[in-house]
Amino acid sequence: MMRYITGFLLSALLLSGCGGNDKEKAGDEYKFSKMNVTDENRIGQNMNYSDFGYMRHKEGDKVKTGNSVPYLNRQKLADMISDMSLQLPGIKDVGTYVTDEEVLIAYRTTNKDRNAAADQIKMTAFAVVPRYYHVYVSDEKGMIDKIEQYQALNNDTENIEGIIDELIAQMKQAPQGKKWNYGENENGEMNGESNNMRGKMSGK
Description:
Blueprint (H helix, E strand, L loop, with lengths): L1 H14 L5 H9 L23 E6 L15 H13 L4 E8 L3 E8 L4 H13 L7 E5 L4 H6 L11 H12 L25 H5 L3
Parallel strand pairs: 3-4
Antiparallel strand pairs: 1-2, 2-3
């Protein structure tokens, strides 16, 4: 129950401003179709909201304690999740890939309990993404480099759904942690659920 509440509150925060006059602007400035963020939240000047996000962190990187929840800036989401995951015990290297409906996290860990490590990584992502997102993880050797190769893709890429689905299938060969509950699988997919957000957000 707490996960649903947390997800709802974080999703609401992602879609709203930071209070004050920003709330009045939420209907226009923060729509998916006309996303507006401050310069300090931008990653480069040529940001395209049809792009996905990728960020990698290694042990020894400076921790960004000031990270704040971005306005569905996928690059910032990937940065935040990688940063937070790297602070977990035994996690040495993390690559996070954020599309418009999935979070794919590849990581290297010294934790011999692969299922427990998968749960920790997964919970970190679920804590900061909107509720409709699904999360997939993998500690398989070479998977970080594999998803890194996909970072230039976006919703305009031909057969993007097939490409992402194939990558997800490869990631699911690794432990995904335990099921959330009776009606929801390891990746946050409900029984019989169909995730249509990619089509709705295409080109956004």
